[in-house]
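Below is how a single chain appears once it has passed through the pipeline. First comes the sequence as given, then the structure the pipeline wrote out for it. We keep one example in the README because the format questions we get most often are answered faster by looking than by reading.
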Amino acid sequence: MSIRILIADEFEVVREGVRSFLEILPDMEVVGQAADGRMAVQLAHESRPDILILDSLMPVLNGIDTARQIARELPGIKIVAFSAHLENRNVREMFKAGAIGYVSKYGGCQELIAAIESVASGKVYLSPSITSLVIEGFVHRSQDDVSPYSLLTAKERQVLQLLAEGKTTKEVAHELNISAKAVEWRRSKTMHKLNVHNIAELVKYAIREEIISVHA
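Resulting structure:
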């Protein structure tokens, strides 16, 4: 039986590249592609893949929150993070969100295949190139090392990302199906928790914490 795979990455060239080499393999089938986090959640519900290959830095709904939502709503789907962002915090947050594999985009096709096969068999996979970073981060991490981002609610994280991507209050309200006043209230709470004082600082925070990319 083939391993059914959903690919979620912002860039079409990456999605198509991954699809093209996976579909050569007789035991792997690509069942869909998603260009943003919200689309990934929707397609995961529709196609019910065995494995989701997910970039940690996604538009509309970032990879961490995408992983968190899918792990909560569709726990049978195994999530493999496939990312060029190898910072310890990013790796740690993806695993906390529900990923059981993390692969560097610099590692090549064979490493991604190895991760898919490992995760499909129920094992955790971590790229050899970032194992030492994770261990070092664990050793030196303080018990009090809690990111302010982790204090935000799911809706506050979504409001933060959409505002940082340049959407207006009205557009965010439409996107999340809430009122403009609810957006403003969550924006205020978010800025207070993150200790930022205007939208410019909010955008800088989102870029620094890799919630959005610089070109988003």
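Residues 3-140 form a domain with the Rossmann fold fold (CATH 3.40.50.2300).

See the next section for the split statistics.
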